[in-house]
Amino acid sequence: MNDRFPFRFGATAAVACCVVGAGHAGAQHIGDILVEPVNNVITTSGIVAGPGGPEFVSGLRVFMATFGEFPNFTDDPGFDTTGGVGFPNGVIFAFDLLDSLRVWNGVDFDALPPETVRVSKGSTSVTTPLTPNQVAAGFAFGQVGSGFLHEHLRYFLNVPQGAGVYAMQVRLRVTNATYQPSPPFWIVFNQNSTAGSHAAAAAYLQNLVAPACPGDLSGDGVVNTADLAALLGSFGESVLRYSNGDFNGDTVVSTPDLAAFLGRFGSACR
Ligand SMILES: [Ca+2]
Ligand SMILES: [Ca+2]
After folding, report:
1. What predicted TM-score, i.e. pTM, was given to this entire model?
2. Beta-carbon contacts of residue 38 (< 8 Å; ≥ 6 apart)
3. Per-residue pLDDT tens for 79-138?
4. Which ligand has the nearest atom to the CA of 230?
5. Helix (H, G, I), strand (E, B) or coil at 3
6. 224 C-alpha to ligand 1 centroid (Å)
7. Most exposed: 87, 159, 185, 188, by fewest CB within 10 Å?
8. 266: alpha, beta or left, given left = phi > 0 and alpha = psi -120 to 50?
9. Over 159-206, what HEC string results?
């Protein structure tokens, strides 16, 4: 089912941060997640259609998918590795879910929906946790063999299965080798919502991962007292990773974030 998955960001800025590279060895599929080791850290990249075949958006951490292959279901995106420069044969991949499911409210992903997503392969499954920033341990789902890995997990939206754009936060790890887990990444699911909302929601998360203007919480292109007030308004709170002034991505707005913010104070980005 993966080959016909339409990968479109819509908002060009969503990937403007990243480097697009030429092909790697192996059979990568448009819309899947390219998984590679970089300095022994698992990294994720996008696989997009280029004029000469698949191209790669290095370090991408926001991926888009659409429920509906069957109602409330998709098995995209899959996970692909590369031959040659990729992981050696025998490496076993697993994943964890790092947050409760989030729903796009048109502005941000602070809201929690009544829905959850069940991630499964065969008879094994795990469901997104109900508590924000709680980790739900996933399971091993694939082993590199013949130089490659190409695996699809199955994603099912649980009731009430309302229309909307949902964000699921994930990390990859390996169970039998020395590689650091991937930085957190998101799969952004469209459930009977508009392509525009889907793209806007993905662009929001992409800006959290790679901010166009770090410290500019208000989005007006300058880092000033209004942003400081916004950060202090969330101080001590548990937030969506990288949002509301969580510079270091530990999901809490605290002193290290304030220090990083003050280092940006007075900056103008436009
Ligand atoms: Ca601002
Ligand atoms: Ca923090």
Report:
1. 0.90
2. none
3. 999 866 789 999 999 999 999 999 999 999 999 999 999 999 999 999 999 999 999 999
4. 1
5. helix
6. 6
7. 159
8. left
9. CCCCCEEEEEEEEEEECCCCCECCCCEEEEEEECCCHHHHHHHHHHHH
